[in-house]
């Protein structure tokens, strides 16, 4: 019950955005762009500016890529058995291989582990964003008629502001540049407001998802892969990583997060199974209210 209670405040914030979007109607794209391009880079900058980096972060990057490509391999196996087309396979990869570490995973880790786990969650979020805007965009573009995978992925990386925020924070830390109390307080104000803002944005995004043609079999396979297979693979990977036990727990919990909301945006942009990916995002987020407490109970 304690684990379930952890999710109630998180879903309450999601619900706030969902109800606000349904009842009032906001320009979700503008708010989402603000959170992505103005607020998230500041949060990431603060983390990279204040965190002393060790070999642990290399292991975290290796873990993230290993998990992603393992899930892609699982999807290819499913696609081979079910005889999916290239477009269907790419849609399944978008729905099954990328987890919502930003809007959802980071707040969960904050509530579970406090400030001690937050920095690790943010690092994982940045790495996951890099994976999504490279590997994710590649498969989204591959499933489109144009098939402009590599070039589209490169363009997406260049547009990702959190990458620049991370790089700048790391440089200032390496050269020991003191920003001063006033600037630090300003950074803290924006950084602290980022997580609740992106949570509200996710609620708004979910309110705009419509399920017209619900493909039960494909969605079910995607849910099993994302919510059950993914944390199991994450557990196996962590067995070989020489990192702290808390970091391993965070890795597994992050892997159990539902489908990333950004995948819906990519699917829509490249017309790669957008209805299916949207359905998987909505259903997996809702179902995670039941699956995540199970993961918490096993991992913690």
Would you kindly provide a written description of the structure presented here, covering whatever features stand out?
The chain contains 13 helices and no strands. The longest helix has 28 residues. The chain has a single domain, classed as Na+/H+ antiporter like fold, CATH 1.20.1530. It is globular. Helices cover 82% and strands 0% of the residues. It is mostly helical.
Question: What brief labels describe this structure?
Answer:
single chain, 300 residues, mainly alpha, Na+/H+ antiporter like fold, 13 helices, 82% helix, 0% strand, globular
The count of strands amounts to 0
Briefly note the structural class of the backbone.
mainly alpha
Can you tell me the CATH topology?
Answer: Na+/H+ antiporter like fold
Which overall shape is indicated by the principal axes computed on the Cα atoms? Answer: globular
Helix content: over 70%
Please trace the helix and strand order, writing H or E for each element. Answer: HHHHHHHHHHHHH
**Main beta sheet, described?**
none
Strand content: under 5%
* CATH architecture level-2 label: Up-down Bundle
Helix run count? 13
Provide the domain count. Answer: 1
Secondary-structure blueprint of this entry?
Elements: H1 2-23, H2 28-50, H3 55-82, H4 86-96, H5 101-113, H6 115-142, H7 149-158, H8 161-174, H9 181-207, H10 216-238, H11 245-255, H12 261-270, H13 274-299
Helix pairs in contact: 1-9, 1-13, 2-6, 2-8, 2-9, 3-4, 3-6, 3-10, 4-6, 4-13, 5-6, 5-9, 5-11, 6-7, 6-11, 6-12, 10-11, 10-13, 12-13
In short:
The chain has 300 residues and is an all-alpha fold. The protein is 82% helix and 0% strand.
């Amino acid at each position: 019950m304690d684990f379930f209670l952890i999710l109630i405040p998180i879903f309450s914030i999601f619900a706030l955005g969902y109800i606000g979007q349904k009842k009032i109607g906001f320009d979700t794209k503008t708010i989402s762009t603000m959170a992505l391009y103005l607020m998230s880079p500041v949060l990431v900058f603060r983390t990279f500016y204040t965190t002393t980096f060790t070999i642990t972060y290399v292991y975290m990057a290796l873990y993230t890529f290993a998990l992603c490509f393992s899930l892609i391999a699982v999807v290819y196996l499913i696609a081979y058995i079910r005889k999916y087309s290239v477009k269907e396979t790419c849609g399944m990869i978008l729905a099954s291989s990328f987890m919502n570490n930003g809007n959802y995973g980071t707040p969960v880790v904050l509530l579970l582990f406090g400030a001690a786990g937050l920095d690790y969650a943010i690092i994982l979020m940045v790495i996951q964003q890099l994976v999504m805007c490279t590997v994710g965009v590649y498969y989204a573009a591959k499933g489109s008629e144009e098939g402009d995978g590599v070039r589209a992925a490169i363009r997406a990386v260049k547009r990702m502001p959190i990458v620049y925020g991370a790089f700048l924070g790391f440089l200032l830390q390496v050269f020991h540049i003191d920003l001063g109390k006033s600037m630090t307080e300003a950074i803290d104000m924006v950084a602290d407001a980022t997580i609740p803002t992106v949570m509200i944005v996710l609620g708004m995004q979910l309110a705009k998802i419509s399920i017209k043609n619900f493909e039960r079999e494909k969605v079910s396979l995607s849910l099993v892969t994302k919510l059950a297979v993914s944390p199991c693979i994450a557990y196996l990977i962590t067995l070989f990583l020489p990192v702290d036990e808390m970091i391993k727990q965070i890795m597994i919990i992050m892997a159990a997060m539902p489908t990333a909301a950004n995948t819906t945006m990519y699917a829509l942009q490249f017309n790669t199974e957008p209805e299916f990916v949207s359905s998987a995002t909505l259903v997996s987020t809702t179902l995670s209210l039941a699956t995540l407490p199970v993961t918490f109970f096993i991992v913690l």
